[in-house]
Amino acid sequence: MAEILVLAEHSGESVKKVTTELLTLARRVGEPSVVWAGAGADAARERLAEFGAETVYVAGSEDLDDYVVAPKAELLAELVTQHAPAAVLVASTAEGREVAARLAVKTGSGVITDAVDLSDGLVAEQSIFGGAIIVQSKVRAGTPIIAVRPNAVAAEPVPESGRGAAQVENVSFAATDVAKSAHITERVVAERGERPELTEASIVVSGGRGVGGAENFALIENLADSLHAAVGASRAATDAGWYPHQFQVGQTGKTVSPQLYMAVGISGAIQHRAGMQTSKTIMVINKDPEAPIFELADFGVVGDLFQVVPQLTEEIRKRAE
Ligand SMILES: Cc1cc2nc3c(=O)[nH]c(=O)nc-3n(C[C@H](O)[C@H](O)[C@H](O)COP(=O)(O)OP(=O)(O)OC[C@H]3O[C@@H](n4cnc5c(N)ncnc54)[C@H](O)[C@@H]3O)c2cc1C
Hints:
Elements: E1 3-7, E2 10-11, E3 14-15, H1 17-29, E4 31-37, H2 41-50, E5 55-59, H3 62-66, H4 70-83, E6 87-91, H5 94-107, E7 111-119, E8 123-128, E9 133-137, E10 145-148, E11 167-170, E12 203-207, H6 217-226, E13 230-233, H7 235-239, E14 260-264, H8 270-273, E15 281-286, E16 299-302, H9 305-320
Parallel strand pairs: 1-4, 1-6, 4-5, 5-11, 6-10, 7-10, 12-13, 12-14, 14-15, 15-16
Antiparallel strand pairs: 2-3, 7-8, 8-9
Helix pairs in contact: 4-5, 6-9
Bound molecules: flavin-adenine dinucleotide.
Flavin-adenine dinucleotide binds next to helix 7, helix 8, strand 15 and helix 9.
């Protein structure tokens, strides 16, 4: 079966959810091999095998930890030359897209970014104009490089009997001086409370313009904390400065696909839907029964969020006791 290279996104030995999504897609179109840049591969092998990785190319070189994206693109280019894979999949994150673009130039290949699905024949699907139009496209030059949006597909482990071998192959790699021109001098861990990361959370509670002000976002945070959920926001709320932009959900924000998405005081504009419509269960709290978000809702409460949210939070807390 054709080999598909998957560039792992990981934090040390912890495999990011998007990597398991990429492996799920890679299995559909060939045999997945993971490219692991940096330390932590040994501890991650089992997780990678669970999602069908047959081979794990490990490049533990310091060049991959101490410099920004360019060495990763060089590493992938070397592996593409050596193994002639049928495609390379990366996450469509800021870093992944830059790696994809550099790799495309190095290998003379076509690149597709922001793919939301991949099917037989390496046909990639993109959702554009806020999800109003679906585009199907295929790379026709070189090795297809496809950057897939996090949370676009559900990660599915393979059954126990069909697990990948996750055979480690160490790759000796040294980046060129050109790739080493931007050096990481310091790493500052962003302060984050106890809440899960927005794109990885299984429950997300988002607030919109209906929340009415920055100070009222405490209501959304309390509800989120009662469910061990992440907090999200509509663009109306982030543009107003009520909540930081990194928590914006939607076309120009993050894409989330949790088990439960709660939209509080959000109308359901197409650009917001683009970032949350694949959530498994959607619950809405909105005082306007005609709000378009109700079209997506599995459960909806028509009511004033200032009355509904505190009661809901209290009930959830009581049940958790
Ligand atoms: C190019 C482009 C990109 C965009 N990208 C994004 C994006 O990534 N994410 C995004 O979210 N938007 C995005 N937008 C903006 C989008 O079009 C909407 O303007 C925005 O989503 C509206 O946010 P909202 O639903 O919070 O506000 P509104 O549309 O104003 O809705 C507020 C809702 O709150 C309800 N409400 C009010 N008070 C209460 C109350 N007390 N209790 C209960 N309900 C109440 C109202 O009934 C209403 O339905 C983009 C727009 C453009 C043009």
